[in-house]
Amino acid sequence: MEDTTELNTSKLGTKKYWDNFYDLERKNFKENSEDTGECWFDDNDAELNMIEFLEDNLGQYNIRSDSSIMDLGTGNGHLLFELWESESFCESKNILGVDYSEESVIFATEIAKHKDLNNKIKFQQADIFQEDWNPGKFDVVLDKGTLDAIALSGIKVGDGKSTIVEKYSGVIEKLLQVNGVFLITSCNFTQEELIKIIETDSLKMFDNVRYPSFEFGGIKGSTICTIAFVKTK
Ligand SMILES: C[S@@+](CC[C@H](N)C(=O)[O-])C[C@H]1O[C@@H](n2cnc3c(N)ncnc32)[C@H](O)[C@@H]1O
After folding, report:
1. Candidates 50, 72, 100: which one to mutate for ligand 1, based on the most atoms within 8 Å of Cβ?
2. pLDDT tens, position by position, 107-120
3. How far is the CA of 137 from the centre of ligand 1 (A)?
4. β-strands 225-231, 176-186: how paired?
5. In the structure, what pLDDT confidence band is assigned to residue 159 with cuts at 50, 70 and 90?
6. CATH of domain 11-231
7. Pairing, β 69-72 against β 138-144
8. Lowest mean pLDDT, pick from 4-18, 28-42, 66-80
9. Which family does the record assign (predicted)?
């Protein structure tokens, strides 16, 4: 059977690439404070769709205006700033963006200060696969493009027998409260592949965002997918 957890490796799967990327974004921001950096999947309005999905599902599982929220591989923190500015989650006392790139964390913190949100949204440097990393449990965990980047690292674990992608659902389980929700947007994996990667005994898909689909060669698809999972136990 085809292995859906393996993608070709790319420089986008290396920390060095992201350090250089956010170092450049910081320089641009210093020159022009309007320039807060790249917004991944902007063409598909992924960010807006993720926020609208959470707003539409307020009251479902642990999605509340005071939910604790973590953004995995937060980059420039754009998703969290937009989420805050939507005003739907401004009762939250715990909004945390995590990234393994120090440059990302410095940059996102600079933007937070500039927006006067550094008391509301925090950023932390960590590799999410570090076993001794224990930031606590969250009501909502977000991923926009991070699993995609991780998959491109080609890192193998467990004596080279499995890919790092296979460890990802364990990270989500560790970070979520029971009834907590994981919302992920990916451009590298199809909905079926994401379900296969994420679902476990306790993580179950409960809904998805419907994007316009295309048909090519008799196969239907869309360029990105956004799926929500809930931790049931
Ligand atoms: C495609 S970017 C997406 C950034 C952000 N989520 C956004 O939508 O703009 C992928 C991000 O994942 C981060 N990342 C990759 N592997 C990581 C890991 N093991 N732990 C923490 N962050 C990681 C990268 O540094 C980068 O910021």
Report:
1. 100
2. 999 999 999 999 99
3. 20
4. antiparallel
5. confident
6. 3.40.50.150
7. parallel
8. 4-18
9. Belongs to the class I-like SAM-binding methyltransferase superfamily. EFM4 family.
Q: What pLDDT shows up at residue 120?
A: 97
* Closest protein CA for atom 13 of ligand 1: 73
Ligand 1 cavity residues, CB under 6 Å: 18, 40, 73-75, 78-79, 99-101, 104, 127-129, 144-146, 149-150
In a 3-state reduction of DSSP, which class is residue 71? strand
Atom of ligand 1 nearest to the CA of 46: 8
Give domain limits for the chain: 11-231
Distance from the alpha carbon of residue 92 to the mean position of ligand 1, in angstroms: 23
* Torsion sign over Cα 182, 74, 42, 17: negative
Residue-wise pLDDT for 43-65, tens only, equals: 889 999 999 999 999 999 999 99
On whether the CB atoms of residues 67 and 89 are closer than 8 A, the answer is yes
Let me know: does 70 contact 142? Beta carbons within 8 Å: yes
CA separation for the pair 117, 123 (Å, rounded): 11
Contact 191, 4 (CB under 8 A): no
Q: Dump the DSSP string for 7-50.
A: ----GGGSHHHHHHHHHHHHHHHHH-TT-----TTGGGTHHHHH
Q: Hey, whose CA ends up nearest to atom 16 of ligand 1?
A: 150
Three-class DSSP category at 140: strand
Cβ atoms of 106 and 99 within 8 Å: the answer is no
